[in-house]
Design goal:
Blueprint (H helix, E strand, L loop, with lengths): L14 E2 L27 H10 L1 H14 L3 E6 L5 E2 L1 H6 L1 H4 L2 H11 L7 H15 L1 E7 L12 E5 L4 E5 L9 H4 E6 L8 E3 L4 E5 L17 H4 L1 H19 L5 E5 L1 E2 L2 E2 L4 H11 L18 E5 L9 H15 L4 H4 L8 H30 L7 E6 L7 H23 L5 H7 L18 H6 L12
Antiparallel strand pairs: 1-6, 2-3, 2-14, 4-5, 4-9, 6-7, 7-8, 10-13, 11-12
Helix pairs in contact: 2-6, 2-13, 9-11, 14-15
């Protein structure tokens, strides 16, 4: 029965959610059935197994998570626009004595006793990209929940998370109208731990299904859409392993000729040769060549694994998986043609720009809202200034801004534009006091403050 979000009285008990149920077939291709049968992606528990056993999926997701974990934050004063870094705080006693500033940096850099900032962010993105859901629990000993009361932040395993819903949806104006409480349960680690909606930061991937009640609050894993390429990759690795493990005969032995003609291989000799082959192969403690006593012909069997197309299958399907997470192909290096240093650098830059920075920016914005940091006049702002592959664009932008600034100043000196037009062209906000004025509307003191020397300006003569 399909759940109807428009029906009243849809309140529910805790709904255990371990992944979306699909019609995906659950087994891998077998020669016996000669039918394409696919890996199981129907639950989060099965998806976790795939992550732990499929090297391509593991590589793509952990690469993205490692890139995201490189992200840092500064604090921005909302009123003045001033940016405060961690180093500023360490060197300035006045900043260090500001409880909001120090608490904000401490919580982000050391979210809990077991995880560093890098470990916390890596774990966060792995769960979000793998399961389509990421949950962060904020531990606050007080009723009030904000940056001043939250002592630690913990990533929560999504496969053991469930929600108690109110039954409301379209009439809801906040999270509490939809979710009564979150419930997390795992034997031995706090069975049925219950949390208020405000204690959980839930971030999720898109979910267009509405088959069950939990679909209105849970995201959907991208792994479900990647069932086919992941199945192919599993088969390819399985096939490669079977070929390497059972290489079969490396050559064929047939009867040879001597001066008297064909020398037949009798049953007893054939049996002895076959038994001797068991001692030969590519495994440890096996011999590589067999020397026969009789006259025989030897035909070599081609055992070039590349001709089976296994590596091409893995590379092609790896690109589909990388595309799903917007990771550039050259970053995960499943491109069989190889890549140059320049291609690698551009791939890293594209990965940051298309996947990591948007993800991190959105996460930081939600973190600001969840911790109510803006209520205290501050907000986290992402910082990527330490990532070398991103600095070239900044240098190019700075050079372009310098040229724009120079041309705008010349136009202002000629009276062609207002001061605000100049400011906006270089990305600065309007000046409410003198911004609408042109150069001849300003007093000598104002012009001096702008660094304009009237005596040297020939534009007004």
């Amino acid at each position: 029965m399909v759940w109807n979000p428009f029906k009243k009285n849809n309140a529910s008990k805790a709904i255990p959610f371990q992944g979306t149920q699909t019609n995906a077939i659950r087994r891998i291709f077998t020669i016996n059935t000669n039918q394409p049968i696919w890996i199981n992606t129907t639950t989060m528990l099965e998806i976790a197994k795939i992550f732990n056993t499929n090297p391509v999926l593991y590589s793509v997701i952990t690469t993205g998570a490692n890139y995201l974990a490189n992200g840092k934050v500064n604090l921005k004063n909302i009123k003045t626009g001033e940016i405060i870094t961690r180093d500023n705080v360490l060197l300035n006693q006045s900043l260090k004595s500001n409880n909001i500033i120090t608490k904000s940096f401490d919580l982000f850099d050391h979210p809990n006793p077991l995880f560093s900032r890098w470990e916390f962010l890596t774990n966060y993105l792995v769960t979000k990209w793998l399961f389509g859901n990421a949950f962060i629990y904020g531990n606050s000993p007080l009723e009030r929940f904000d940056i001043t009361t939250v002592g630690t932040m913990w990533n929560v395993w999504p496969q053991y998370m469930s929600a108690v819903l109110t039954g409301k949806y379209f009439s809801a104006t906040n999270t509490n109208d939809i979710i009564k409480e979150w419930v997390w349960g795992l034997n031995g680690l706090g069975t049925n731990t219950k949390w208020k909606p405000e204690e959980i930061l839930h971030r999720k991937d898109v979910n267009i299904s509405i088959d069950r009640q939990e679909d209105i609050v849970f995201g959907r894993s991208r792994v479900e859409a990647l069932n086919r390429p992941l199945s192919n990759i599993s088969l390819a690795y399985e096939g490669e392993n079977n070929v390497l493990n059972n290489m079969g005969a490396r050559f064929i032995v047939t009867a040879g000729k001597d001066d008297a003609g064909v020398v037949p291989i009798g049953p007893t000799e054939k049996k002895n040769i076959q038994a001797a082959f068991d001692e030969y192969g590519l495994k440890d403690n096996q011999k590589q060549a067999l020397i026969a006593e009789g006259v025989v012909n030897v035909t070599t069997v081609d055992q070039d694994i590349r001709k089976l197309g296994i590596f091409e299958t893995i590379a092609t399907d790896a690109m589909s998986i990388a595309n799903a997470y917007k990771i550039a192909h050259d970053v995960v290096r499943y491109n069989l043609t190889g890549s140059t240093f320049e291609n690698q650098e551009q791939a890293e830059k594209r990965t940051y720009q298309n996947a990591i920075i948007p993800e991190f920016n959105d996460f930081i914005n939600d973190l600001n809202d969840w911790l109510k940091l803006r209520n205290y006049g501050w907000e986290y702002v992402p910082d990527w200034s330490h990532i070398s592959v991103l600095q070239e664009d900044k240098r190019e932008q700075a050079s372009a801004n310098s040229l724009i600034n120079k041309s705008m100043m010349e136009a202002f000196n000629r009276g062609a534009i207002t001061y605000n037009t100049w400011l906006n062209a270089i990305g600065l906000p309007d000046d409410k006091q003198i911004g609408d004025n042109r150069i001849w509307d300003l007093t000598p003191e104002q012009l001096s403050a702008l660094g304009i020397n009237m005596n040297k300006s020939s534009n007004l003569e």
